[in-house]
Amino acid sequence: MFEKSEILNEHFTGFSLFDQDKDKMVFEQNGSKHFIPASNTKTYTFYTALEMLGDSIPALKYVTKGDSLIFWGTGDPTLAYSTFKSNKVLDFLKKSDKKLFFVATNYKGNFYGAGWNYDDYLEDFQPEMTAFPVEGNTAKVYKNEAGGLTVKPSFLQPFFKVDPNFISEYYLIKRDFYTNQFTYPSKIDKTGYLQEIPFKTSPDLTISLLEEKIDKDITLIDIPLPKDFKIIYSEKTDDVLRKMMMVSDNFIAEQLLLVCASTLSNDLSTNTIIEYSKDNFMKEFANDISWVDGSGLSRYNLFTPNSSISLLKKISNKINNDERLHSLFPAGGVSGTLKRAYKTDNDKPFVWAKTGTLTNVYNQCGYIITRKGQKLIYSFMNNNFRKTTDEIRTEMARIITEIHNKY
Fold first, then answer.
1. What is the DSSP string of 258-292?
2. Dihedral of CA 14/17/18/20: which sign?
3. Within its chain, how far is the Cα of 341 from the centroid?
């Protein structure tokens, strides 16, 4: 199939297929060569979270001293974000009879990951990273029936201004790179949802957004975390992992690494947690990978098909439950980023995998169950192609489906 594929032979392709039942490699093509993984990187973040987090996400560290409640963020991405409904953190802060103090100095990194594209700062897939994100660190903008804009979080509404000279074929709304000054054209035809756009984060803005939600004053201070701190937990870990994997959520992926770092110390560092994970959970292939962020936005990441096979074996062994495992990955023809990539077999999915997409990059890594009941793991990596992603995806689906049908 690989020799005769005109599409795959036009670019750099890597493929490894492993038989879980026989514990042996079935086939390799460039299995030990390095590829840009794109969002296949999220499987490495996924496994790190499986190893380091319990059944719920640690959301806030705090101590009480006299009439004061002092709190630190853990990087938890779920506060007022997307479909997550837990209000444990907000309720805890609302109900406290103490004066509230926030420490924002425990995030140890840039607002972007290593190698991220600064040209994409307006894109909803690239919010900034912080210790205490609120509403995904993005503003959601709608045109209301009265003809004006409705902004969520509402605190940012005054920062949106009409620019009569603004004409853009790509964005209805733009933000100044360095500030929260948003502009939009004087005429917008569409009513309803318009755009989701990252805002410029800062400790002061975090406090303002929290104050708006709990209707209480919060003061910014800087003190070290005492040893007698306590933790408030938010969402179920599986729910957060599932959301990250299904829609390939970059924001959740990056913040989850910071949450994992929070379990080691109070310093939230992407670099530190990646090195810790490699040293403790990925020793067998740690020297074969270059891993720099949680989401795969960076082209500095380099993995091999074989390293991803090793990782997926570890994930399967760690979970040790096919039903749970499959529920956390997109299912071909059924859910997530694979819903339209595959057809089911008699209404049943046979492939569960994480996709990875950048310009000229498309990859998949995950699990196959064949018609004969064989359990396989695969990593399929495509870099440097000039064809459309749809063409590459279709060819990959053809080959994976044939493996399912015949093996």
1. HHHHHTT-S-B-HHHHHHHHHHHH-TTTGGG-B--
2. positive
3. 20
- Maximum distance among all alpha carbons in the chain? 74
Q: Helices (DSSP H) in 12-142: which residue ranges? A: 42-52, 88-95
**CA 248/CA 118 separation, integer angstroms:** 20
| Interatomic CA distance for residues 80 and 83, integer angstroms | 8
Strand 375-383 to 12-19 pairing: antiparallel
Nearest Cα to Cα of residue 187 among 151, 230, 148, 222? 148
pTM of the predicted structure, to 2 decimals: 0.96
**Two tokens, residue 219:** 């003061």
Total Cβ atoms within 10 A of residue 217? 9
Cα(76)–Cα(175) distance, integer angstroms: 25
Distance (Å, whole) CA 53 – CA 204: 29
- Which is nearest to 208 in space by CA: 154, 258, 268, 139? 154
CB-based contacts of 177, cutoff 8 Å, min separation 6: 118, 121
Mean pLDDT rounded to a whole number for the chain: 96
List the strands of the sheet with 149-152, edge to edge.
149-152, 138-143, 192-198
| Residue carrying structure tokens 């560092």 | 269
Residue type, 39: S
Q: Tokens 């609120």 map to which residue?
A: 134
Read off the tokens for 43: 């499987």
Which residues is 142 bridged to in the sheet? Answer: 150, 193
Cα dihedral 84/85/87/89 (nearest 10):
-10
Return d(Cα 157, Cα 73) in angstroms, integer.
Answer: 25
The percent of residues above 70 in pLDDT, for the chain, comes to: 100
pLDDT confidence tier of residue 126, bands split at 50, 70 and 90: very high
